[in-house]
Amino acid sequence: MLMPNKSHESRLRRRRRRHRSLSRRPIRSFVPNILTLSGMCCGISAVHMALIGNMTAAIVSVLLAAFFDGIDGRTARKLGVSSRFGAELDSLSDSATFGIAPAIVAYVHSLRGLGNFGWALSLLFAVGMALRLARFNTHSIEHSDPVWMNGFGTGVPAPAGAYLLLMPIMAHQGFGLEVPPWGYAIWTIIVSLLLVSRIPTFLPSHEENDAPNKHAMSFFLGGVIYLGAAYSFPWVVLMLTGMAYLASIPFSASKAYRHRSSVLN
Asked: Model-level pTM?
């Protein structure tokens, strides 16, 4: 009687385990992609809501898109399915969600009062967003950011740029403050320049966000308070959040340049 070859059985077991792993991987990798595409659908839906005159729903759609954008990458890392495909899909989605959609919403709400010039400003924002995302992709592939930029982003991130562009609409929806078209034009130019600028902005690293934090309870309580306030006074909280982010930009730049001085010296 022939005895079974142990090495052959071992190879068969490894092959079966590898097959099971590969058969499960597409399902896991599908989850973060679904989240990314859900965010893109929310962003495009914001255009539809603006066209039918529901600006509140348009803003909520962009905020939902920002939420999905914040969890898709983290979900991919938790599931161990981060990939170049997912990164490229996320970038393409961001260009539509946070570049094209908010530009059209701003045009429908106010910039169309300036005619062709208003449309040109909408294009300016969309182009600025595309350039910002292209630069981010290039840096992530080439790892060309200097050491002193660890923990900082270059320019305003895509979701923050869309948020800032829509702040005048938030002021109108929440407080009845009407920003004239020329005022919105100036604001659009400022936000577009922030997107393509090289101003260092706070950007917590993924490792810090995913690692256990000794201040987790403080963050949790702060999040509960924030959500409670947002539920009770949504427009006040949204406006204060945007103004707080704007106020943080000089501090982030100052901290980054101090860090650069310490590293270079």
From this structure: 0.85
The whole domain housing 96 covers: 23-264
Residue 29 lies in a domain: yes
Domain at 105, CATH number: 1.20.120.1760
On the 0-12 / 13-18 / 19+ scale of CB atoms within 10 A, 192 is: buried
> Under DSSP, is residue 202 helix (H, G, I), strand (E, B) or coil?
strand
The pLDDT value recorded for residue 1 is: 45
Reported for 252-257, long-range contacts at CB under 8 A and 24+ positions apart, including other chains, are 252/152, 252/199, 252/200, 252/201, 252/202, 253/199, 253/200, 253/201, 255/200, 256/148, 256/149, 256/152, 256/200, 257/200
Structure tokens at 165: 């562009």
Q: Of all residues in the chain, what percent carry a pLDDT higher than 70?
A: 84
In a domain, 99, yes or no: yes
User: What percent of the residues of the chain are helix, what percent strand, and what percent coil, each to the nearest 5?
Assistant: 80, 0, 15
Q: Count the neighbouring beta carbons within 10 Å of the beta carbon of residue 160.
A: 22
> 172 is written with which tokens?
């109108």
Residues 207-240: pLDDT tens digits? 444 444 556 677 788 888 988 999 899 999 999 9
| Residue 239 parent element (H or E) | helix 234-264
- CA–CA gap between residue 5 and residue 3 (Å, rounded): 6
| Count of beta carbons in the 10 Å neighbourhood of residue 173 | 18
The more confident residue out of 167 and 4 is: 167
DSSP 26: H
